[in-house]
Design brief:
- The chain has 2 domains: about 150 residues, Quinone Oxidoreductase, Chain A, domain 1, CATH 3.90.180.10; about 130 residues, NAD(P)-binding Rossmann-like Domain (Rossmann fold, 3-Layer(aba) Sandwich), CATH 3.40.50.720.
- The two termini are about 35 Å apart.
- Helices cover about 25% and strands about 30% of the residues.
- The chain is of the alpha/beta class.
- Helix 8 links the parallel strand 14 and strand 15.
């Protein structure tokens, strides 16, 4: 329940009875604590994880969802960006007009970087950065063969670009061959629709799909290689044959974004500012169309990221 006298703001909350498990509501404005800032949200970005949260049953009805936000600081912390600073942050409860974020979970956005593009960076961009880093701890990225499943999705498109930027030989796995040129333009040296088309072992797999594709990718892994399990968008079980784990040493690793994410966000923003990282936005609209955005993402009709505007587009 909201306390009497509290400032009420628009937000997207969990609603098990709504078609996508989400609805617009009004909630009490959050208050920043020590080491936190209050952000006026200008743009937010929707991730599959947000949809999973809404449908999981683990998140209470009425909880504000979302993690990706970009906007302007309206209440500063003792250490951190001052009021008026443009920032991007990974923050729980991001789908609201006002959002609280930890100072070590945000990055300053320069004036020449679009805030809508910045809003798409936190979850997908940081996941790509951290998964590449974790998977290539003992293998130099330059010259490494990196296989990325679900490459046309949000995480996948960032991972393709970042791996190629580091000098890797990138193999992008896509379901729609019509997107081959798009992935090639982002840096993929090979695009395939079936893993039987991959003719040599790979050093790292970034898997966002799971299911049978994960099993097939494991079979392609070179000795000493690693699979980073970033997601399981297929919703299918990964059933390995009995002898799948017999042979030269290689590893399969679960993945979770780890804090602090601020430094990785800063790196991503710098790459965007330098023109070295593009932010593919496949769906964009006002917050009021959250259900439309969620349906498009759930049905795999979004090539890249889905961004929602908190203000009319002219404000961006």
């Amino acid at each position: 329940m909201c306390q009497a006298g509290g400032v009420m703001i628009r937000a997207v909350v969990v609603d098990p009875d709504a078609p996508m498990g989400l609805r617009l509501d009004r909630v009490e404005e959050p208050e920043p604590g020590p080491g936190q800032v209050l952000i006026e949200a200008h743009h937010v970005s929707l991730n599959r994880g947000d949809l999973d949260d809404a449908r999981s049953g683990r998140v209470l009805p009425g909880t504000v969802v979302g993690r990706d936000v970009a906007g302007v600081v309206i209440a500063a912390a003792d250490e951190g960006p001052v009021v008026g600073t443009r920032v991007v942050a990974l923050a729980p409860g991001a789908f609201a007009q006002r959002v609280v974020a930890d100072v070590d979970a945000l990055a300053v956005v320069p004036d020449d970087v679009d805030l809508a593009a910045a809003a798409a960076l936190p979850v997908a961009g940081v996941a790509a950065v951290q998964a590449l880093r974790a998977g290539l701890l003992e293998i130099p990225i330059k010259g490494a063969r990196v296989l990325i499943t679900g490459a046309s999705g949000g995480v996948g498109r960032f991972a393709v670009q970042l791996a190629a930027y580091g000098g890797a030989h990138v193999i992008a796995v896509i379901s729609d061959p019509a997107r081959s040129d798009e992935l090639a333009a982002l840096g993929a040296e090979e695009t395939v629709t079936d893993l039987t088309q991959v003719d040599a072992p790979v050093d790292l797999v970034l898997d966002t799909v799971g299911g049978p594709q994960l099993v097939a990718a494991w079979a392609l892994l070179a000795p000493g290689g690693n699979v980073q399990c970033v997601g399981a968008s297929s919703g299918q079980p990964a059933t390995f044959p009995p002898d799948a784990m017999v042979g030269p040493a290689k590893s399969l690793t679960s993945f979770l974004i780890t804090a602090p994410v601020g430094p990785d966000l800063e790196s991503l923003v710098r790459l965007v500012a330098a023109g070295s990282l593009s932010v593919p936005i496949g769906w964009r609209g006002p917050l009021a169309k959250i259900e439309e955005a969620a349906a498009a993402l759930r049905e795999r009709r979004v090539a890249g990221k889905a961004v929602l505007d908190m203000f009319p587009r002219a404000r961006s």
